[in-house]
Amino acid sequence: MKLFSFDLYTDEDVIIVNASIEGKYKFRLALDTAATHTTIDSNVLYFSGYELKNSIGEKEIETANGIIVVELYNLGQLESLGIIKTNFEVQVYDFIAHGITSDYDGVIGLNFLREHKFCIDIAKKEISIF
Fold this sequence. Notes:
Blueprint: E1 2-5, E2 16-21, E3 25-31, E4 39-41, H1 42-47, E5 57-63, E6 66-80, E7 83-93, E8 106-108, H2 110-113, E9 118-121, E10 126-129
Parallel strand pairs: 3-8, 4-7
Antiparallel strand pairs: 1-10, 2-3, 2-6, 4-8, 5-6, 6-7, 9-10
């Protein structure tokens, strides 16, 4: 079992976890158990050394704010919560171009956690990965 702590300052805060691409570029993602797929900001992809022109396709997704079009990319390696995924497909969206600013760079969706048992203990502010 791996154990990770997180901070919640108010009841409206989101759970933020650290992540890295290719073990180099480090960034922060919101843990979103309502999201089916992992989505990251296009700037994270660019700063990680990926060419934005190398999308493997696009897809329409429904968000809380309506339907958007995201680009699809295969990452060589994505790591978060002690889990390493290789050749992992993510959705990419240009947050800044669409007026989205936040303290995190995307969301970890259930596709990242699919093969793992996990527990979010809000009272202890801990995430257990089994």
